[in-house]
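Weekly sync, protein design subgroup
Attendees: M.S., D.O., the rotation student, P.L. (late)

Item 1: inverse folding check
M.S. brought a backbone from last month's batch and wanted to see whether the design step gives back something sensible before we order anything. D.O. pointed out we never logged the input encoding, so this time it goes straight into the notes. Structure tokens as presented (145 positions):
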């Protein structure tokens, strides 16, 4: 039987959150999700609770002031960069836009699982379904179509 693949976002966020809690326990908001994750690790991302789980990670990251640097580049500079969490996309929340254009596009984001893409003249120029786990400082090269 193959060994289940851990999800780095979940493992790192749990490690960091344990450091922030006085008892070193997993925060209450994540305990049930984490139990399910440990049982279904290989298929966790396809489960209905995954988007809620990652949104709770994002909320706790904000609560504990844990932000990671995201630097986005494209082959041609000057693209706008948009992003939204998995839950925000399914909830039809308007995507956020980073303050600077590529290739000087750096932002501090709370840990989470995001869709990230670039836009020029109001039209998407890269894959809008690209998902990125933000759990460490990240360099991201978006490929434009």
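Designed sequence read out in the meeting:
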């Amino acid at each position: 039987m193959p060994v289940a693949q851990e999800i780095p976002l979940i493992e790192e966020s749990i490690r960091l959150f344990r450091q922030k809690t006085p008892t070193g326990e997993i925060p209450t908001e994540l305990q049930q999700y984490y139990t399910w994750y440990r049982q279904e690790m290989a298929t966790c991302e396809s489960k209905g609770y995954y988007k809620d789980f990652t949104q709770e990670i994002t909320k706790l990251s904000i609560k504990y002031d844990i932000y990671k640097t995201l630097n986005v580049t494209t082959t041609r500079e000057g693209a706008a960069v948009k992003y939204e969490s998995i839950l925000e996309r399914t909830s039809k929340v308007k995507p956020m836009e980073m303050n600077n254009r590529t290739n000087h596009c750096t932002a501090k984001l709370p840990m989470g699982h995001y869709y990230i893409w670039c836009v020029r003249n109001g039209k998407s120029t890269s894959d809008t379904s690209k998902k990125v786990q933000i759990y460490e400082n990240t360099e991201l090269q978006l490929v434009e179509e």
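Discussion: The CA atoms of residues 59 and 110 lie 8 Å apart. Helices lie at 8-20, 28-39, 50-63, 86-90.
Action: P.L. to compare against the previous round before Friday.
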